[in-house]
Amino acid sequence: MKRLLVAVFAVAAVCTLHAQGSAPEHRVDWNKLRPEILERYRSLVQIDSTAGNETLAVDYLKKVLEAEGIPTQTFALDPKRANLVARLKGNGSKRPLLILAHTDVVGVQREKWPVDPFGAVMKDGYVWGRGSKDDKPVLTANLVTMLMLKRLGIPLDRDVIFLAESGEEADLAGVGINYMVREHFPEIDAEFAMTEGGGARIDDGRVTRVNIGTAEKIPARVRLVATGIAGHGSVPRLDNALVHLAAAVEKVGRWETPMRLNETTRAYFEKLAAISPPERASIYRSLLESKSVGDAQKFLRERSPSEYSMLRTSVVPTILKAGVGANVIPSEAEATLDIRALPDENIEGFYAEMAKVINDPAVKIERIPQTRPASPASKLQTEMYQIMERVAQKMYPGATVLPSMSTGASDQAQLRAKGIQSYGIGPASTEADEINYPAHGDVERLAESSLYPFVQYVWDVVTQVAASK
Ligand SMILES: [Zn+2]
């Protein structure tokens, strides 16, 4: 059955080369390719690749790729959590392009789902299932792109490397990108990479915004530890660790850390200012022109916390621990601060500033080891970014294309730290879907109509970046 499908789909593609001197255009009959895209995507969603079972997805990918003559390699620190690499060779005139996606999905609470979370059920125009957004659309788009490059025999200036990686959601054991970067980096080393970390917004049935992820904040968490003398709860003490800790948490929680724009956030707010209603636009312009910045920040802090976070290294208290009994003064109390640093932050200097804000020798700042390295932002003036921008503009006429900095962290950190210019993408969804059916939410779903243009987007970018001109 699979083989028959492949034969039929192969006819759906034609490759046309324009007259000499102009760029080659690789035409795919997208209408004819739709059934195959949907079948691949649903097959992947139907694989329960919850962290710990990623090899199940790797087995599927290996079978599909090898059936069409694309060799694969698997790399596994844990046999149940393998990574898969496939490479289509170019002529070596340019450095490789890495397209990657993670195979693992977060867990499910089955009772919250109206359908089987691993059924890839099609209902109301959506495909429902865990991983339907995070990250199987990217995995599908990358897979289909590899298959089509091979079927069409497209000559490449760069190698195109496909990586399906495990353990993105929780990689405490280091089985995924950390393992690949540490032990098998030559297999995935590239000039550019493209993976999850961006997205597009649909308003009134039309894509109005396309975000290309170019940067992310760096987790730099710490514990505040206050110490004092333990004692009886009936006797107040000035060195009560709880009192000192509470004061420190209050100070850092309200601390307005310095605001700073970088290339990505500056371009982001500039583009948003151009398309926002007047009140919002003037807020963004204040940030850009450093005028009335205090008012603009106050507005964002109250109304748009994620944009407020994009302006600075943020400090958010998340855990408090202290006390063993109602009548016991504890000798130690601690708080966890989720600190997310700007990509260019001098983190030692930042901790030193924080110590000054706390201004209490009884409270020590202890670093929590991080699983992701510090990583610089990717540049906007690269061939890759400019092609990604151009393809988005062509696919969605009238949409605003803007670079974005994630306040969260992803596996792009490890790639950027190794000098790869890495960019984030994602399929389009409405604001209502982003709120009600988000990645990691109780229920996940993707509009079927968003899947096909997304695959086409990946194809267009990969062929324009990697195919021989
Ligand atoms: Zn993801």
Describe this structure in words.
This protein is α/β, with parallel strands linked by helices and 469 residues long. It is 39% helix and 22% strand. The chain has 16 helices and 20 strands. The strands form five sheets. It has a six-stranded mixed beta sheet. A hairpin with a 7-residue loop joins strand 1 and strand 2. Helix 4 crosses helix 16. The radius of gyration is 25 Å and the shape is globular. The two termini are 36 Å apart. The N terminus is likely disordered. Bound molecules: zinc ion.
Roughly what percent helix? 25-40%
Strand order of the largest sheet: 1-2-6-3-7-18
Number of DSSP E strands: 20
Mean pLDDT: 93
Alpha-beta classification:
alpha/beta
Q: Biggest sheet: strands, sense, closure?
A: 6 strands, mixed
Straight-line N-to-C gap: 36 Å
Spell out which ligands are present: zinc ion
Instruction: Give start-end ranges of low-pLDDT stretches.
Output: 1-23
Outline the secondary-structure elements.
Elements: H1 2-11, H2 30-46, H3 54-67, E1 72-75, E2 83-88, E3 97-102, E4 121-123, E5 126-128, H4 136-152, E6 160-165, H5 177-183, H6 185-188, E7 192-196, E8 199-203, E9 206-216, E10 218-219, E11 222-227, E12 231-232, H7 241-254, H8 263-275, H9 278-289, H10 293-303, H11 305-310, E13 314-322, E14 328-329, E15 332-341, H12 347-358, E16 363-367, H13 383-395, E17 400-406, H14 412-417, E18 421-425, E19 428-430, H15 431-436, E20 445-447, H16 448-466
Parallel strand pairs: 3-6, 3-7, 7-18, 8-19, 9-17
Antiparallel strand pairs: 1-2, 2-6, 4-5, 5-20, 8-9, 10-15, 11-15, 11-16, 12-14, 13-15
